Every structure is written in C-alpha cells, then in structure tokens.
Amino acid sequence: MHFYCEKCKKEYPLNSTSYQCSCGGLFRLYKDDKDTIPQDVSIGEIVTPLLPIKFGKQEMFFKMEHLNPTGSFKARGAKAMVNMLKHLDIDNIVEDSSGNGASALAAYAAAANMDCTVYVPESIAAGKLHQIETYGAHVRLVIGNREATAEAAKKAVVQEEAYYASHVYNPLFFEGIKSMAYEIYHQLDDNVPEYVFLPVGNGTMLLGLYYGFEEIGRLPSFVAVQSENCCPLYNAFKKKRKVSPPSFTIADAIRVEKPIRLKEMLMAITRSKGDVITVSDEEIEEAQHQTGRKGIYVEATAAVPIAGALKYFRKGKPDNYRVVIPITGAGLNGPDKKRNR
Ligand SMILES: [Zn+2]
C-alpha cells in the first residue's frame, strides 16, 4: 500500500511527511487485494441502520450516519486513518476541520493514545469544540475561513514535524468512508441504489462513496447538494461564468469556498450520471424541521441533502427508484453560534 501522485504518478510511502506531491498533485491510494487496514483501535462502531422514511407518498432511505461513535460519518475515515498510522508508529498528528472531522480524529487519536492537534475556525459550534476538547486534543482556534484553518494546520505540520492527518488530503480517510458503500449495498440485498443525495463541501463523502461503489462494480447517480450561498462544485458543473462571491450559510460543515479535490468531484458526478443542485438556508431549515417531526434530530448540514431530494423530486419520483440519503451528522452539538450574524 502506498500513495501516488494523481498527476505525475510518483510514489510516496504512507508515513511520508509530504501531504501532496512535489509537483503539486494530490495523493491517491494504491492498495492491492492483499493489503488490509488494521482494525485494532475501536470505539464501538456499528453498521448504521438504513431506515425507510416517507415524505408524503415518497419513500427514501436514511443512512443513519449520525449514529456513528463520534456523531458523524467522519468516524469511518478517522478509524481507518488512525489505525493505519498507529500501525506505522506515527504518534503525533495534526488535522484541520470545521468540526466533525476534527472530533472524529480526536476521538480515535485518544483511543490510540496518539498526540493530536486540531485547527478549527473560531466560528465552530460550542458543542463541537467541547467534544474535541473532551477527547483531549490540543485545539487551535483560527480566525478566518475554512481555507485559513487549513493553511494554519499545514504550517504547524512543517514546524512541529507532525503528520498531517487531513481528511481532505490524506486518501486513507476516503478509504474508511468506503465501508458505508458496502453497508448500503448489503442492506439493499446486494443492490446499488438508483440515487444517493449528499451534502458536498470538500467532497469527503462523495469521493469515499464513489470509490466504494466503484469497487463494488456499479455506481448510483450521485446528486451533490450545496448551499446556494457557497456552491463551487455547482458553479463548475454548470459551467457558470458569472458567480456571486460565497456568503454565510447555516450549513457550516460544507462552507468550503475552494475545495482542493474539485476535479475529482466533477469526475465522480459525471461518471455516475449524477447532478449538482443547490438549496437555500430556508429550505435547509424546513427540511431540518420536517426531519425532526419524524423523530430524527440532525445538524443543518445533514438536512441539506434532504432538502435537495425533496426539491429534486418535487413533481414525484418513480416508485422503483431507491433513494439513499446519508444523515451526515447529529444535531446534538448545536447550531453554529454565528447563525444570527
Ligand atoms: Zn506529482
């Protein structure tokens, strides 16, 4: 198992202190049939339920990812990455995230007895911050947007000679997300759904599921849903020439202005014959409330694909279409404290 550059194909070991190729290309993971990722570090993962939910006459399937041990799907990626890094005797890691990625990594790092430092935007929800601190990670608050947070983390990696355990740069993270594709496939009696709706910021879930279903042998159509206030993938996919600058959205986990894996995401959408759509903050809040009325409390970002699916199938959906919506994160950590800005 090793990393290789998506552009020039140069190979790098998994424990490389580089997080991208010297040519500027991003890493992909090479893994053959014999390669496995250790599973020793565990904090009680489950196969998350695939729950049929009815909105009016339309049935959809919620993949209950907020029931993962850290409250979001990012536990899957953190588990794979921390296990592999532990196996490679790496004991000092740095990550940056808007919240769920950092808390997942902090949790698994704690279980693996690793030193973990996370860079988070100062606008992080108070509940998420408390979660990360409780796991014992060193927290560094960064003033500025998501990109500023990533820059601060990268600087620290060089200065402190730590390993950049980024959920965006490091392909080991995507490797962990693949397990969700296999679970969905088995829960549908070895079938691939027609559609998967998902919120997209950095594209962690989109790419993880894309590679997972690619391994299974058939792709669902991925419909990426973004906030209309911050939608770089939508603008690129629709080839928009005139775009308004990104602005605030309550969907804080996907408030990413310049996703580094944009090309890879476009490939996933195109090859899966998918689509990219946007929703407003009002539509997100409405979907969050509708979901709450069914007894399921999700964070705003997790309501984004629900709002997207309801909009996409407003005029009806063929009964035989199986639509899966991963519920990315729990609502329990509270809304972003800047929502009334
Ligand atoms: Zn390269």
TrEMBL record:
EC number(s) given by UniProt: 4.2.3.1
GO BP annotation list: isoleucine biosynthetic process; L-serine catabolic process; L-threonine catabolic process
Record bears the keyword Lyase: yes
Cross-referenced SUPFAM superfamilies: Tryptophan synthase beta subunit-like PLP-dependent enzymes
Cofactor(s) the protein needs: pyridoxal 5'-phosphate
Record domain Tryptophan synthase beta chain-like PALP: where: 42-329
Keywords on record: Lyase, Pyridoxal phosphate
GO molecular function, one term: threonine deaminase activity
Taxonomy, superkingdom: Bacteria
Record PANTHER family: L-THREONINE DEHYDRATASE CATABOLIC TDCB, THREONINE DEHYDRATASE, MITOCHONDRIAL-RELATED
Entry protein name: Threonine synthase
